[in-house]
Amino acid sequence: MGRRTRVWVVAAALLAGCGTGRLAAWRGTPEPWSEARFARKEFATYRVRLQDGVPVETVVGRVDTYQVRQGDTLLDVARAYDIGYNEIVDANPGVDAWVPPVGTKVVLPTAFVLPCCRYEGLVVNIPEMRLYHYRRAPKDPDTLLVQTYPVGLGRTDRRTPRGLFKIRGKTKNPTWVIPESIRREHIAEHGDDRRAIPGGHPDNPLGKYRIELTIPYYTIHGTNNPWGAGMAVSHGCARLYPEDIEHLFPLVEPGVPVEFTYQPVKAGRRKDGAYLEAHADVYGVSGSLDAAAQKALGRLGRTVDRRTVRGALARSRGLPVWIVGGAAGGRPS
Questions:
Q1: Which of 133, 237, 247, 279 is catalytic?
Q2: What's this model's pTM, rounded to 2 decimal places?
Q3: Which of 120, 169, 229, 261 would be a feasible disulfide site paired with 212, CB 3.0-4.6 Å?
Q4: Residues sharing a CB contact under 8 Å with residue 67, sequence separation 6 or more, in sequence order
Q5: Which of 136, 90, 88, 130 lies closest to 113, judged by CA?
Q6: Which residues lie across from 148 on neighbouring strands?
Q7: Positive or negative, the Cα torsion across 167, 172, 175, 178?
Q8: What CATH class has 153-257?
Q9: Do 173 and 208 form a contact (C-beta atoms < 8 A)?
Q10: Residues of the chain with CATH 2.40.440.10
């Protein structure tokens, strides 16, 4: 059994959470990839039971596969299933992102450990390059509704900051007033000395929707370059696929809390035990991933030997990996 196959065997056991699925939406659809097709994609909503305001289980979604067709790129497949570039490449080592062999079954990393420990409003986990939106179900305060989207974040020389903020406003078709430092880059690289780009212009990197935060200069917005989702390519803001920000925009209002957190290793629980999910330490600030994993497991009340932890970290590749059984001690079936 090959290495990639073994990864899938581990991941295929991961069936967690309940919600509206988007995976079936693309089965047997010969239509070419297009902006119109992406605009019709479905968005999964996971329902998580709360006990004393804390999720009983913190692993949602399920891993699936997709069989490559003629003309596919992994970037198209990733966008269709709301996955970032980083996630689909990490889950499918050795597969050419631009010309994947026809017939290849690629792993869709559509299962997630929820970042610890805030389950309200918007939470962006920087190493994962993923945004989580939490809200209580209408008329059911003991049910948490979770939606999640990949994001493009700040490159290493313009890092997305960590911290707790709030939404202070929202704008449709925002004008981009270009910060002077970025303007100097544009002049040096492209001879472009514009000071602002109007809303709706194809060169406007904010796309059609912008969510402003209480931290100055940093926002959550759309993009005119969808392939940046899941990449460290921005000047620090969070970029979403155009259809994702359009979906999220009406669901949040000023005053909603926003957290930018930094968790390259997450530990989650469900009824069959504890899971670890590991991502690249994109800014190189986390130190030992072993130590981060043990700390995350400690918050679950779990102690796991170092060898087991290292094995789980090595085979995670952004996928939740079962590490230790639950009360019944069973492996996922």
A1: 237
A2: 0.88
A3: 169
A4: 103, 104, 105, 106
A5: 130
A6: 132
A7: positive
A8: mainly beta
A9: yes
A10: 153-257
Tell me if residue 307 falls in helix, strand or coil.
Answer: helix
Q: Is the pLDDT of residue 11 over 80?
A: no
- Our answer to whether residue 237 is catalytic in this structure is yes
Question: What distance in Å separates the CA atoms of residue 315 and residue 333, rounded to the nearest whole number?
Answer: 19
Instruction: Enter the tokens of residue 182.
Output: 């970025």
Whether a cis peptide bond, with omega within 30° of 0, leads into 18 is no
Tell me the CB-side half-sphere exposure of residue 31, using CA atoms within 13 A. Answer: 13
Q: How confident is the model at residue 29 (pLDDT cuts 50, 70, 90)?
A: low
User: What residues pair up with 273 in beta bridges, in sequence order?
Assistant: 270, 325
287 phi and psi, to 5 degrees?
80, -135
Looking at the DSSP bridge assignments, the partners of residue 125 are: 130, 261
Residue 190 falls in the annotated catalytic set: no
Mean pLDDT value of segment 83-91: 97
Tokens for 115?
């970042």
- Write the pLDDT tens digit of every residue in 181-234: 888 888 888 898 888 888 888 888 899 999 999 999 899 999 998 989 999 999
CB neighbour burial string for 151-183, b if at least 16 within 10 angstroms, e if fewer:
bbbbbeeebbeeeebebbebbeebebebeeeeb
Q: How long is the chain?
A: 333
Q: What is the pLDDT of residue 309?
A: 92
Backbone angles phi, psi at 270, to 5 degrees: -150, -175
Q: How far is residue 65 from each of residues 3, 5, 12, 315, measured CA to CA in Å? A: 16, 12, 9, 17
Kindly tell me the burial class for residue 315, based on how many C-beta atoms sit within 10 Å of its own C-beta (0-12, 13-18, 19 or more): middle
Q: Are 55 and 76 in contact (CB under 8 A)?
A: no
Tokens (6 digits) for 195: 């000071």
* Distance in angstroms (rounded) separating the CA atoms of residues 247 and 310: 38
Radius of gyration (C-alpha) of the chain in whole angstroms:
20
Average predicted confidence (pLDDT) for the chain: 88
Distance of alpha carbon 119 from alpha carbon 54, whole angstroms? 8
